[in-house]
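Protein record

Derive tokens from sequence
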Amino acid sequence: MPRTSPRKPVAVIALGGNALAPAGESPTVYDQFRHARQSLGPIVELARSGWDVCVVHGNGPQVGDELVRNEVAREEASPLPLGVLVAATAGWIGYMIQQSLENALMRAGITRQVATVITQVEVDPADPAMRKPTKFIGRSVSPERAAEIEAEGHVVKKDGHGNLRRVVGSPPPKSICELPVIRALMDAGVVAVACGGGGAPVYRHPTLGWEGIDAVVDKDLAAAVLARDLGAELLLILTDVDAVYADWGTPTQRALTRLTLDDAVEMDRNKAFGEGSMAPKVRAAIDFVRRTSGRAIITSLDCGQQAVRGEAGTTITATETA
């Protein structure tokens, strides 16, 4: 039944797929369960403090692994399109997070249910991003394998760490199709896991209705749209870097503990953030803060609890005093 108590503050937490399958590892599903359990501190702390919470997770490494499985088994089983693989990974990663979070809440003495929503996210199929792939998926590959992938008609680029990886089209999200369902769950006090892998990208066909598309949606941008439409007060983006840095990769690099909206926009305009790595996260934070005047924090998984308390990460707000 819907809750009748006053509205609680809302937080959307964007959990990177690399948090469950860190770069440099080839983790089994059991390793990913272990990483999932390790990722829950900030979520449990917010739930304990009375927040309503929605968790959005990435799937870059996982959906890349699914593509490899499709390629290896294509002579034995019909391959699945990329959009379907996004939904598939959202299901099993959501299962890991849901089960791990239910156990963590129970151990903490917090009576909250958790539910996973396989989420469709509306995109524009004619968006230029479909013709210019930039979104990294999968793990790093050797130069030899990269050449094979390119010969098959796919695009490979170097990521922010210099690793060769496949890139695919990633149009920006326009709206969250299951928003009413997610809102109803949160109104009932349920911790929702939604927009897994950025959500399965769909578009509205003039006669058929919703139709899938072979692309991926950036999970941070999807989280920002979801947080905006939920009226969230906090967007917490957990990644593999403890903060946003100025002069990243140089001897003068320094962590930025606080940025105003104007500062963040100006730095992004000057290409201060790595395209394909930190830049999309900062843009997601900018979009959320601009539309809601809420607070966005970017930090690493292991600093998440301190970040919730304002003791770590990069906080982006509308003004200096926000």
